[in-house]
Write a structure and sequence with these properties.
homodimer, 318 residues, alpha/beta, 10 helices, 13 strands, 38% helix
């Protein structure tokens, strides 16, 4: 038995993991706006202890507890250097967690941390979309574009802090200004946010687009599914939006294939809900973009299988 | 003692390597336009045998022979999949080389091959600009943009054939058409060729630019040194050219830093002759471009130390 913990902006999800299954779950509010990091970590430790006790799992039966955290982490030191969306900076996460586990339950269980996208990628390789593969890239298309690279079934996070920021690869010199300060990062073109921005602009400029009707003429209610649904019904504004989005996403995927040549390329995040409808089209485009079309290996592009559980499962096996 | 062999478009360079020194060299014409791959490989084997005999190095004193080859190679099988500039396709290089070594000299020495940029990167890590480091990226700025990535003192060439093509990362959607078929690859902006193209256009459009005088008004004779010399003398056309070139090169370097966070970033190829004059400026730009400026590690940018010997030395230690 192991515990995998996935710290998110709103909630912290804990799972008791047995093999490839999550046999029990707990959720804690993150509430980082109100609580100090120490309090959040204490709450997580309390929940982990409860998860073990409620399921009659003793200290020695729990092989490890792994924690997936957003932002820049330093796995060797067990610290969170900087996690923007929970406003943590230089937090000694593992030290505090170990201290609470000892103080509250006299438990000493091996601990590990990783970036959340890295943990999710590991989860997909161990028990998800890339099961049986050794090397994979997971690109998550959500608010931003995150990613994880797995090499020989291990997380590759760059040699030094700040590596594997796959969304912060410029694909457009002098392009759109990114939150990281650069212009033209992949994140500005391939995130779910970018897709929504494109669609809202198109729907505004083309009032007869189905997208307006679908969201009841309130573009704040437009979602990804509506955009793809309109595109499937040949709405010209939506067709243009999806074409542009897929073109830019393909550029990013092909860049990463040319660098890593993974065995398999996994897409996660909200946009990946389109499954084969999205990946079939991306595969066609990426096949034509990779270097050395004749001999170069082009990986299959698939969507995440574990979804929101990928981080818990990956964290359990750090 | 080891032998390192670097196959180039015009010549094949062989070196007898002892520790970090090349103690003897031989050069063979590649002549791939006239000779079949089998003949070229036979000539290389003959030269390797001569190099050993002339230096009284017996079969058992030579630990290994490594061959660096341009293009896509398959190190495990010992084959060259495709090397555009010597027009080799599916050549079983190591099998043939071993056969000639046995047939002509009854020698059986451990053999290895690698891509030439990969071998050069390894050479720089072992005995050159990145000596003492475990992880480095070498970006070669020549006719094209090639690269090698070293992880834990070993070559990383992607999991499958065709990986680590660092020059074929799009940095400009819908940009300049690259020889690989894509638009906007880094190679089209950061190669020595790209610098020359920029400069020729600028010198043509601005007839009073010093660059015209420097090359005797024959732009086919313009070279990289002239461009930087004119820029140092505040020639406005040259200043604009170098600024654009450095900006685009910085984008490529920052992209790779965000992905790999190497300990050190090495520039090779013709343009790197500018040494600190180039790297000081690039360092300033890249420092401001990398993700997570506060905690993220930004590697020092340096130029190659081994130059044309990097491939021989790296090949010797494959």
């Amino acid at each position: 038995m192991r515990i995998g913990i996935d710290i998110g902006g709103m909630t912290v999800k804990l799972g008791l993991v047995d093999g490839e299954k999550i046999v029990a779950k707990k959720v804690v509010e993150t509430d980082s706006a109100k609580l100090a990091p120490e309090e959040v970590i204490h709450n997580i430790a309390t929940a982990a202890i409860a998860l073990l006790k409620e399921n009659q799992v003793g200290e020695k039966e729990c092989e490890s507890i792994g924690i997936a955290c957003p932002g820049s982490v330093e796995p060797k030191k067990g610290t969170v250097l900087y996690a923007n969306n929970i406003a943590w900076e230089n937090v000694p996460l593992l030290e505090l967690f170990a201290q609470y586990m000892m103080q509250d339950a006299q438990m000493q269980i091996p601990l590990a941390i990783a970036n959340d996208a890295d943990a999710a990628a590991l989860g997909e390789v161990l028990y998800g979309a890339a099961k049986g593969k050794n090397n994979a890239i997971l690109l998550t298309l959500g608010t931003g574009v995150g990613g994880g690279v797995i090499m020989d079934k291990k997380i590759f996070s760059g040699y030094m802090a700040g590596g594997c920021e796959l969304g912060h690869m410029v694909i457009e010199r002098e392009g759109k200004l990114c939150t990281c300060g650069r212009k033209g990062c992949l994140e500005m073109y391939a995130s779910a946010t970018a897709l929504m921005d494109l669609a809202r602009t198109a729907a505004t400029n083309q009032p007869d687009s189905m997208m307006n009707e679908m969201c009841g003429n309130d573009l704040s209610k437009l979602n990804g599914k509506m955009i793809f649904d309109a595109q499937k019904q040949k709405d010209s504004a939506a067709m243009q939006v999806v074409d542009t989005y897929e073109e830019d996403l393909s550029i990013g995927i092909a860049n990463l294939v040319n660098i890593f040549r993974p065995e398999i390329f996994i897409l996660g995040g909200g946009v990946s809900a389109q499954k084969e409808y999205l990946t079939d089209e991306l595969q066609k485009r990426v096949n034509g973009l990779c270097f050395d079309v004749k001999y170069g290996y082009v990986p299959p592009i698939v969507t995440s299988q574990l979804g929101n559980d990928a981080g818990i499962i990956g964290a359990a096996y750090l």
